[in-house]
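RECORD TYPE: inverse folding
INPUT: C-alpha coordinates
STRUCTURE:
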Protein backbone atom coordinates (compact mmCIF):
# COMPACT_ATOMS: atom_id res chain seq x y z
CA UNK A 1 0.00 0.00 0.00
CA UNK A 2 2.83 2.35 0.91
CA UNK A 3 4.37 1.68 -2.48
CA UNK A 4 1.12 2.58 -4.23
CA UNK A 5 0.94 5.87 -2.29
CA UNK A 6 4.61 6.58 -3.04
CA UNK A 7 3.98 5.90 -6.74
CA UNK A 8 0.96 8.22 -6.71
CA UNK A 9 3.02 10.96 -5.04
CA UNK A 10 5.89 10.70 -7.52
CA UNK A 11 5.68 12.57 -10.78
CA UNK A 12 6.39 9.38 -12.75
CA UNK A 13 3.54 7.65 -10.91
CA UNK A 14 1.21 10.50 -11.79
CA UNK A 15 2.26 10.26 -15.43
CA UNK A 16 1.55 6.52 -15.42
CA UNK A 17 -1.89 7.18 -13.91
CA UNK A 18 -2.52 9.90 -16.49
CA UNK A 19 -1.57 7.45 -19.22
CA UNK A 20 -3.93 4.78 -17.83
CA UNK A 21 -6.89 7.17 -17.43
CA UNK A 22 -6.16 8.73 -20.84
CA UNK A 23 -6.05 5.25 -22.36
CA UNK A 24 -9.56 4.48 -21.06
CA UNK A 25 -10.80 7.57 -22.93
CA UNK A 26 -8.80 6.63 -25.98
CA UNK A 27 -10.58 3.24 -26.03
CA UNK A 28 -13.92 5.03 -25.65
CA UNK A 29 -13.06 7.42 -28.49
CA UNK A 30 -12.26 4.53 -30.86
CA UNK A 31 -15.54 2.80 -29.98
CA UNK A 32 -17.47 6.08 -30.26
CA UNK A 33 -15.87 6.83 -33.63
CA UNK A 34 -16.75 3.35 -34.95
CA UNK A 35 -20.32 3.87 -33.70
CA UNK A 36 -20.56 7.27 -35.43
CA UNK A 37 -19.21 5.86 -38.69
CA UNK A 38 -22.22 3.53 -38.56
CA UNK A 39 -24.25 6.56 -39.68
CA UNK A 40 -22.89 5.88 -43.19
CA UNK A 41 -24.71 2.52 -43.08
CA UNK A 42 -28.02 4.32 -42.84
CA UNK A 43 -30.61 5.53 -40.39
CA UNK A 44 -31.89 2.09 -39.40
CA UNK A 45 -28.47 0.79 -38.55
CA UNK A 46 -27.57 3.89 -36.53
CA UNK A 47 -30.84 3.97 -34.57
CA UNK A 48 -30.55 0.26 -33.79
CA UNK A 49 -27.02 0.84 -32.50
CA UNK A 50 -28.19 3.70 -30.24
CA UNK A 51 -31.01 1.49 -28.96
CA UNK A 52 -28.56 -1.33 -28.29
CA UNK A 53 -26.47 0.95 -26.03
CA UNK A 54 -29.54 1.52 -23.89
CA UNK A 55 -30.42 -2.12 -23.41
CA UNK A 56 -26.95 -3.69 -23.39
CA UNK A 57 -26.64 -6.25 -20.56
CA UNK A 58 -30.36 -7.10 -20.63
CA UNK A 59 -32.04 -9.31 -19.43
CA UNK A 60 -29.39 -9.95 -16.77
CA UNK A 61 -29.13 -6.26 -15.95
CA UNK A 62 -31.89 -3.65 -15.95
CA UNK A 63 -32.16 -1.25 -18.88
CA UNK A 64 -29.54 1.54 -18.78
CA UNK A 65 -27.53 -0.07 -15.94
CA UNK A 66 -24.55 -1.22 -18.06
CA UNK A 67 -24.58 2.18 -19.76
CA UNK A 68 -24.51 3.96 -16.40
CA UNK A 69 -21.70 1.72 -15.09
CA UNK A 70 -19.74 2.61 -18.19
CA UNK A 71 -20.54 6.30 -17.75
CA UNK A 72 -19.31 6.11 -14.13
CA UNK A 73 -15.95 4.77 -15.34
CA UNK A 74 -15.74 7.57 -17.92
CA UNK A 75 -16.57 10.26 -15.36
CA UNK A 76 -14.13 8.88 -12.75
CA UNK A 77 -11.24 8.54 -15.21
CA UNK A 78 -11.94 12.00 -16.64
CA UNK A 79 -11.85 13.65 -13.20
CA UNK A 80 -8.71 11.71 -12.23
CA UNK A 81 -7.00 12.73 -15.49
CA UNK A 82 -7.77 16.43 -14.93
CA UNK A 83 -6.74 16.38 -11.24
CA UNK A 84 -3.48 14.59 -12.09
CA UNK A 85 -2.76 17.08 -14.89
CA UNK A 86 -3.30 19.95 -12.47
CA UNK A 87 -1.10 18.30 -9.82
CA UNK A 88 1.77 17.49 -12.18
CA UNK A 89 1.78 21.00 -13.62
CA UNK A 90 1.89 22.40 -10.05
CA UNK A 91 4.71 20.01 -9.14
CA UNK A 92 6.82 21.14 -12.08
CA UNK A 93 6.13 24.81 -11.30
CA UNK A 94 7.25 24.28 -7.72
CA UNK A 95 10.36 22.45 -8.92
CA UNK A 96 11.12 25.37 -11.21
CA UNK A 97 10.79 27.82 -8.29
CA UNK A 98 13.73 26.09 -6.62
CA UNK A 99 15.91 26.40 -9.66
CA UNK A 100 14.79 23.54 -11.89
CA UNK A 101 15.98 24.15 -15.40
CA UNK A 102 14.48 22.66 -18.48
CA UNK A 103 16.49 19.75 -19.73
CA UNK A 104 17.30 20.47 -23.35
CA UNK A 105 16.93 16.86 -24.42
CA UNK A 106 13.28 16.76 -23.29
CA UNK A 107 11.43 17.79 -26.40
CA UNK A 108 8.15 19.66 -26.20
CA UNK A 109 6.05 19.43 -29.32
CA UNK A 110 3.77 22.37 -30.19
CA UNK A 111 0.86 20.10 -29.17
CA UNK A 112 2.25 19.86 -25.64
CA UNK A 113 2.07 23.63 -25.19
CA UNK A 114 -1.58 23.57 -26.12
CA UNK A 115 -2.38 20.67 -23.79
CA UNK A 116 -3.81 22.76 -20.99
CA UNK A 117 -5.91 25.11 -23.14
CA UNK A 118 -6.82 22.27 -25.45
CA UNK A 119 -7.92 20.31 -22.38
CA UNK A 120 -10.14 23.18 -21.26
CA UNK A 121 -11.67 23.41 -24.76
CA UNK A 122 -12.35 19.65 -24.73
CA UNK A 123 -14.08 20.01 -21.36
CA UNK A 124 -16.26 22.88 -22.66
CA UNK A 125 -17.04 20.83 -25.78
CA UNK A 126 -17.98 17.77 -23.71
CA UNK A 127 -20.45 19.75 -21.60
CA UNK A 128 -21.99 21.25 -24.76
CA UNK A 129 -21.89 17.90 -26.61
CA UNK A 130 -23.81 16.04 -23.89
CA UNK A 131 -26.40 18.86 -23.66
CA UNK A 132 -26.59 18.76 -27.46
CA UNK A 133 -26.64 15.07 -28.47
CA UNK A 134 -27.50 13.15 -25.29
CA UNK A 135 -30.02 15.25 -23.36
CA UNK A 136 -31.05 17.46 -26.31
CA UNK A 137 -31.19 20.54 -24.06
CA UNK A 138 -29.22 22.65 -26.56
CA UNK A 139 -30.53 20.91 -29.69
CA UNK A 140 -33.36 22.75 -31.48
CA UNK A 141 -34.74 19.65 -33.30
CA UNK A 142 -34.10 16.96 -30.71
CA UNK A 143 -36.52 14.04 -30.55
CA UNK A 144 -36.06 11.98 -27.38
CA UNK A 145 -36.09 8.17 -27.48
CA UNK A 146 -39.52 6.78 -26.66
CA UNK A 147 -41.41 3.51 -26.82
CA UNK A 148 -41.48 3.71 -30.62
CA UNK A 149 -37.67 3.73 -30.72
CA UNK A 150 -34.60 5.88 -30.94
CA UNK A 151 -34.20 9.00 -33.07
CA UNK A 152 -30.41 9.10 -32.85
CA UNK A 153 -29.88 9.46 -36.61
CA UNK A 154 -32.34 12.34 -36.88
CA UNK A 155 -30.71 14.05 -33.87
CA UNK A 156 -27.23 13.53 -35.31
CA UNK A 157 -27.99 14.92 -38.77
CA UNK A 158 -30.18 17.85 -37.74
CA UNK A 159 -27.77 18.67 -34.88
CA UNK A 160 -24.82 19.00 -37.24
CA UNK A 161 -26.60 20.71 -40.11
CA UNK A 162 -25.99 24.14 -38.55
CA UNK A 163 -22.58 25.23 -39.96
CA UNK A 164 -21.67 27.05 -36.73
CA UNK A 165 -22.32 23.97 -34.64
CA UNK A 166 -20.41 21.78 -37.11
CA UNK A 167 -17.50 24.26 -37.03
CA UNK A 168 -17.39 24.03 -33.23
CA UNK A 169 -17.29 20.23 -33.50
CA UNK A 170 -14.38 20.47 -35.96
CA UNK A 171 -12.54 22.90 -33.65
CA UNK A 172 -13.03 20.57 -30.67
CA UNK A 173 -11.90 17.59 -32.76
CA UNK A 174 -8.71 19.49 -33.65
CA UNK A 175 -8.05 19.92 -29.91
CA UNK A 176 -8.82 16.23 -29.32
CA UNK A 177 -6.38 15.25 -32.09
CA UNK A 178 -3.62 17.51 -30.70
CA UNK A 179 -4.29 16.15 -27.22
CA UNK A 180 -4.08 12.57 -28.49
CA UNK A 181 -0.90 13.33 -30.41
CA UNK A 182 0.79 14.53 -27.25
CA UNK A 183 -0.75 11.77 -25.13
CA UNK A 184 0.55 9.00 -27.38
CA UNK A 185 3.91 10.75 -27.58
CA UNK A 186 4.18 10.99 -23.76
CA UNK A 187 2.90 7.45 -23.30
CA UNK A 188 5.66 6.14 -25.53
CA UNK A 189 8.19 8.15 -23.57
CA UNK A 190 6.83 6.89 -20.20
CA UNK A 191 6.86 3.31 -21.50
CA UNK A 192 10.50 3.70 -22.42
CA UNK A 193 10.15 4.26 -26.13
CA UNK A 194 12.52 7.17 -25.63
CA UNK A 195 15.14 4.47 -26.07
CA UNK A 196 17.24 5.45 -29.12
CA UNK A 197 16.13 2.36 -31.01
CA UNK A 198 12.42 3.29 -30.87
CA UNK A 199 12.66 7.04 -30.53
CA UNK A 200 12.09 7.65 -34.23
CA UNK A 201 8.71 5.87 -34.01
CA UNK A 202 7.18 8.31 -31.55
CA UNK A 203 6.29 11.05 -34.00
CA UNK A 204 4.88 8.83 -36.81
CA UNK A 205 2.87 6.66 -34.41
CA UNK A 206 1.42 9.71 -32.60
CA UNK A 207 0.65 11.38 -35.96
CA UNK A 208 -1.11 8.32 -37.38
CA UNK A 209 -3.24 7.81 -34.25
CA UNK A 210 -4.24 11.50 -34.06
CA UNK A 211 -4.95 11.70 -37.82
CA UNK A 212 -7.09 8.54 -37.86
CA UNK A 213 -9.22 9.71 -34.94
CA UNK A 214 -9.55 13.20 -36.42
CA UNK A 215 -10.55 11.98 -39.88
CA UNK A 216 -12.87 9.29 -38.52
CA UNK A 217 -14.81 11.78 -36.40
CA UNK A 218 -14.68 14.77 -38.74
CA UNK A 219 -16.10 12.76 -41.65
CA UNK A 220 -19.54 12.89 -39.98
CA UNK A 221 -20.08 16.69 -39.64
CA UNK A 222 -18.39 17.25 -43.03
CA UNK A 223 -20.70 14.70 -44.68
CA UNK A 224 -23.75 16.28 -43.07
CA UNK A 225 -22.74 19.71 -44.40
CA UNK A 226 -21.99 18.22 -47.84
CA UNK A 227 -25.45 16.62 -47.93
CA UNK A 228 -24.06 13.06 -48.00
CA UNK A 229 -25.65 12.22 -44.66
CA UNK A 230 -29.20 13.50 -44.53
C1 LIG B 1 -18.02 14.54 -34.93
C2 LIG B 1 -17.84 14.25 -33.69
C3 LIG B 1 -18.85 13.58 -32.78
C4 LIG B 1 -20.13 13.21 -33.04
C5 LIG B 1 -20.92 13.32 -34.35
C6 LIG B 1 -20.66 12.62 -31.84
C7 LIG B 1 -21.94 12.11 -31.69
C8 LIG B 1 -22.52 11.70 -30.50
C9 LIG B 1 -23.87 11.30 -30.32
C10 LIG B 1 -24.92 11.22 -31.44
C11 LIG B 1 -24.07 11.00 -29.02
C12 LIG B 1 -25.37 10.54 -28.34
C13 LIG B 1 -25.49 9.05 -28.35
C14 LIG B 1 -26.84 8.64 -27.78
O1 LIG B 1 -27.21 9.13 -26.72
O2 LIG B 1 -27.50 7.85 -28.43
C15 LIG B 1 -22.80 11.21 -28.36
C16 LIG B 1 -22.57 11.02 -27.01
C17 LIG B 1 -21.34 11.24 -26.39
N1 LIG B 1 -20.17 11.65 -26.98
FE1 LIG B 1 -19.94 12.13 -28.89
N2 LIG B 1 -19.69 12.67 -30.86
C18 LIG B 1 -18.57 13.25 -31.40
C19 LIG B 1 -17.37 13.48 -30.77
C20 LIG B 1 -17.11 13.19 -29.46
C21 LIG B 1 -15.84 13.40 -28.81
C22 LIG B 1 -14.61 13.95 -29.51
C23 LIG B 1 -15.99 13.01 -27.52
C24 LIG B 1 -14.99 13.01 -26.41
C25 LIG B 1 -13.98 13.83 -26.30
C26 LIG B 1 -17.35 12.55 -27.35
C27 LIG B 1 -17.89 12.10 -26.18
C28 LIG B 1 -19.20 11.73 -26.01
C29 LIG B 1 -19.77 11.34 -24.72
C30 LIG B 1 -19.04 11.28 -23.39
C31 LIG B 1 -21.12 11.03 -24.96
C32 LIG B 1 -22.16 10.59 -23.96
C33 LIG B 1 -22.22 9.09 -23.96
C34 LIG B 1 -23.29 8.61 -23.01
O3 LIG B 1 -24.46 8.88 -23.28
O4 LIG B 1 -22.93 8.02 -22.04
N3 LIG B 1 -18.00 12.67 -28.54
N4 LIG B 1 -21.88 11.64 -29.28
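DESIGNED SEQUENCE:
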Amino acid sequence: MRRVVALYRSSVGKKVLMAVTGFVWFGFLLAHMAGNLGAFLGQEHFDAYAEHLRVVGEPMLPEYSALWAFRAVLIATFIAHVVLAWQTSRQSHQARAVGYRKQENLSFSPASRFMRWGGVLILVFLVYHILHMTTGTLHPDFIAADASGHNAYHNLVTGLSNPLVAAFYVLALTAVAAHLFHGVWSLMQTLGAAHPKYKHLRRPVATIVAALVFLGFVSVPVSVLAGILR
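NOTES: The chain has a mean pLDDT of 88.
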